[in-house]
Design brief:
Layout: H1 10-27, H2 49-70, H3 75-82, H4 86-95
């Protein structure tokens, strides 16, 4: 390297490399496709024992949430009945494919 010569901008180098890779992708006849919303290659994301313990507790509460949701209660009402927060009820419902009644 010559002393006093300008240092190339690393961001510009990365962008040029990415542009070249995109050009190669399309030149090879490949086509992009849309990945549907909510689909990813990542797993559940539970990485430690505490998270697994919390998930087990939510799974244990799921039958009661399912029963109360079948009666037409919304997340707020179920939370009050179970003495827990409505956000936790929504998480339990999401993890266990439970449809909650109402709009709260």
């Amino acid at each position: 390297m010559n002393i006093g010569s300008p240092i190339p901008d690393p961001r510009l180098q990365v962008m040029a490399d990415l542009s070249a890779q995109i050009d190669q992708f399309f030149a090879a006849g490949r086509r992009p496709f849309v990945i549907p919303s909510g689909v990813s290659g990542e797993g559940c994301g539970m990485k430690n024992p505490h998270q697994r313990k919390q998930r087990a507790a939510r799974d244990a509460a799921a039958p009661m949430v399912r029963e109360l949701a079948a009666q037409g209660l919304n997340a707020q009402e179920i939370g009050e009945a179970m003495k827990t927060s409505h956000t936790r009820i929504r998480l339990i419902a999401q993890e266990n494919s439970i449809t909650l009644g109402g709009s709260a």
